[in-house]
Structure prediction request, 328 residues.
Amino acid sequence: MNKIIRTPYVSFRPHTIRPKFSEQLPCDDRLAQRVAQPLFDAGVVIAAITERRNYDSGLKPRPYHDLRLLLQGEMRVEMGGRTYDLEPGDLMACPTGTPLRCSAGRKGTRYLYFFIEDRSDWEPLKKHGDYVRSFESAPVLFLLLRDTLDAMASHQPDTIRRAWQNSRMLIDLLRLEMGRGGSKRSEEGSALNRLVDDVTAAPQKPWDRQNMAARLHLSVSQLTRLFNQELGVSPRELVIRQRMQLATQELLNTNRKIESIAAELGYASFHSFTRLFTRHVGIPPGQYRARYRHPSLPASTPRSSEQSASAPASSTPRMRLRKISCLR
Prediction:
């Protein structure tokens, strides 16, 4: 079966035949543990991509934190005394113990979800409470989980190694979102969220810790502490991860030289860029391009930096984090 899976963000040609209705990474499955142990170490009970028709979960509190990202179709959510009609790209976060009901009609709905244990390291989820919002990193979340599920299906050593890296990046992405907590933020948290949004939107800019701290009216040490407390990463690490995400998109979507991609992302040294890319993605950029660019997806022509920076996430069927800059 060689069909193309389409979402609002990506067109994806499966390498393997997949179940029609649901694919799961459950914590009690030995193969899933081999493929995605970092997910389970972080408290994830199950991660899945599923499709439902004529679906009604019933209104009841959940024993786990429940995170869902709508990929296709529609879904109605009753949560915390409010009703939401989700659209593709919307993320729902429901802390443990909150009454939740999800439903879909006969046309069906396709979504991914995570059930997460009620642990202290996921406390921000409970602090911010339930919410629904449009999730700008939806393509990344989908592709990281998609690739991890493929690794479970393939049983190949190289894909399993990559799946471990993807699992870590999934946890990083979820922790980043949980630290931001939808729209329920203090004044300081709102300012931090705006800063993170700007870094995410244009990581290729020359961000540095001093300017970031000044923007929040904090010292550099206070900024670092705030990032670690709310997001689980340092300012420098956030920028690097967003750069590496943009790098993977450029490697798979364009014919640009790696040196050009590195320079646009703020790295004057090609070797420094290659070292960081290998540390975050698992293999050097040249190998990544050769291995993961699908032969049925023709390489696009080189793009200008303006085109690259402004291209919507929906045009890039890629895997990883987001864009760049150079924190020292």
Notes: The radius of gyration is 19 Å.
